[in-house]
Design brief:
Elements lengths: L17 E5 L6 H18 L3 E4 L18 H15 L3 E4 L3 H7 L5 E4 L7 H9 L3 E5 L9 H10 L5 E5 L2 E2 L5 E2 L4 H6 L3 E5 L5 E2 L8 E2 L4 H11 L3 E7 L13 E2 L3 H16 L2
Parallel strand pairs: 1-2, 1-12, 2-3, 3-4, 4-5, 5-6, 6-9, 9-12, 12-13
Antiparallel strand pairs: 7-8, 10-11
Helix pairs in contact: 1-2, 1-8, 3-4, 4-5, 7-8
Amino acid sequence: MNINNIPQIKHTDSGNFFVLAGPCAIEGEEMALRIAERLVTITNDLKIPFVFKGSFKKANRSRVDSFTGIGDEKALKILQKVSKEFGVPTVTDIHTNEDATMAAEYVDVLQIPAFLVRQTDLVVAAANTGKTVNLKKGQFMSPESMKHAAQKVLDCGNENFMITDRGTMFGYQDMIVDFRGIPTMKEFGTTVLDVTHSLQQPNQTSGVTGGRPDMIETIAKAGIVTGVDGIFIETHFDPANAKSDGANMLHLDYFEGLMKKLVAIRQTINQF
């Protein structure tokens, strides 16, 4: 896809990777605007094409008492406000065909969660909105098999999609990124590396997913070296108290430093 097709995206001629970044879930308006303002400032300064990410609801929870959201329309309106206030595109994940129709009224990119990417009806519903679709590779799927998910979008007459690697299950409680999959999936379309979800440690006995945020920089650097088109990072100013996925999110204070390092690596690679 041509990322210029995403409304309001900037700095596409900078030679940089693009970044999808924001909190795991929309917890409220103040937190979303606070995070978005910082991310917009950093990405503008570094000339990185930026899409603000936030889940309007969380359907894939380990426990019934886990946080699922503040209300669908309320959260979607916050995403819409972020877009209007800062002039940036937004992305959110969807879980049902009805979600696709509803969310398309508020955001620019519809994300298919990894555990749902084989659901043909959901992928088709997202593609038929005409929005850009982010297909997250299933933790249980090979890179080669993602060509079929991509073809479903193309068969709907929608050429605007990206494929995101978010790691592969290694045993019961660990995720591993097989970087051989990046060039494979680049043959099908635009590729993204979901750095933070790739460092999840799911299926903990507590029912709360763990993570390895200390490895975020390592995985992100490797992704840029391997040639991904974009980076996906969940970030929060208080990960320890975030309502979802706090164990593997990047602290917002570290975002700028990481982006500077990744931009320097990308500039070096571009010379070759």
